[in-house]
Amino acid sequence: MLCTxxxxxxxxxxxxxxxxxxxxxxxxxxxxxxxxYTGGFVLPVAIDFCTVAVISPREDxxxxxxxxxxxxxxxxxxxxxxGTPRPRGHWSDYPAGVAWxxxxxxxxxxxxxxxxxxxxxxxxxxxxxxxxxxxxxxALLACAGVSMPQEKIAVLCRxxxxxxxxxxxxxxxxxxxxxxxxxxALLLDxxxxxxxxxxxxxxxxxxxxxxxxxxxxATGGYGNRRDEVEAGQRALQQCRPGIELLRDATLEDLxxxxxxxxxxxxxxxxxxxxxxxxxxxxxxxxxxGDLARFGALMAEAHxxxxxDFASSCEEVDTLVxxxxxxxxxxxxxxxxxxxxxxxxxxVKKDEAESFMQAVREQYKAATGITADVYICLAxxxxxxxx
Length: 386
Ligand code: ADP
Ligand code: MG
Prior knowledge:
By secondary structure, the protein is α+β, with helices and mostly antiparallel strands. It has a domain at 4-199 and 380-384: Ribosomal Protein S5, domain 2 (2-Layer Sandwich). The chain has helices spanning 4-15, 78-81, 93-104, 128-144, 150-165, 172-179, 217-239, 251-257, 263-288, 291-307, 314-324, 352-367, and strands at residues 21-31, 41-57, 62-67, 72-77, 112-118, 184-189, 195-199, 204-214, 329-335, 340-348, 372-376, 383-384. Strands 1, 2, 3, 4, 5, 6, 7 and 12 form an 8-stranded mixed beta sheet that branches. The longest helix has 26 residues, at 263-288.
């Protein structure tokens, strides 16, 4: 657990003030990959890695951000943050974007000092970005004396990342970081934003393995895949009235329109349509406590992501294959954008430590790479630290 005392002390040392403290977790997606931007279903959990924000007011209209992770400060004026986004290509774009987004919503902000400190690994796919954004939003709202539903906070933080930072992310990250609950996964309908909390059994750990590889198409890849999916979605909209988003289509619709779209678009859409089905089935499995079924769905999801979505890679496939053979492993699959990054594994609590060691050893032997492995619990969403 991150030491909130430490960040409070640093804030005091840096700004000479104390202030209220807020916390937002990282997240991992159990199943439902690349389904969010076509209005489908995702099933992420908030994890026990987090970002903490401390805030105190200042009188001169400046907005000053300090990150303990970077040991660096960035200064803006509240006035400039109220205008057109001018991202600096710097970590402070994330909290600055949140201030911008809140002001776009009509929330009046005065000057402030805001410190951030997180133990969510940066850029590893566990959503340190949404974690930093949502912690920032809670701090800024408290400073402004405004309360807001957690769901709305998620939407405003996503806007910050899309429109201020300029990252093309879906709503999943900010939503589960904001609205997650201890011991639960969150099933989110990415169109309506209706959600449901589903129990994760107490004797299960969520083990995240970072393959430590990120292949060249990783950056362009998200864009390309998204373009391919959207091309398929457009073809479906044209040949089947009533399809507003890909998620409205059935596999039968897709088959019927297959010759109206490029082969790649067809395959990417097939992944998404089968994935939406798997997420809903995974919901049933969790409600019934049928972990074996849940694990089988994770395995199917991995194969679909690897073959139809064509977005895995050798190292990640190796990580998944190693995991699936280990004692206590309920399910394993790639998670995140693809072409490298992390796998998510459901593992029996008592086997989690030995699982972690065995994965690291066997992955090292197979690839020469030492994986980072994190054993996590399904945790609560963003909140004030008492
Ligand atoms: P991910 O969300 O998978 O960790 P991203 O690239 O989306 O990766 O976001 C990572 C970026 O978020 C970091 O490079 C940094 O700019 C910003 N960020 C996250 N946490 C912090 C923090 N504690 N302090 C400052 N910036 C942070
Ligand atoms: Mg991110």
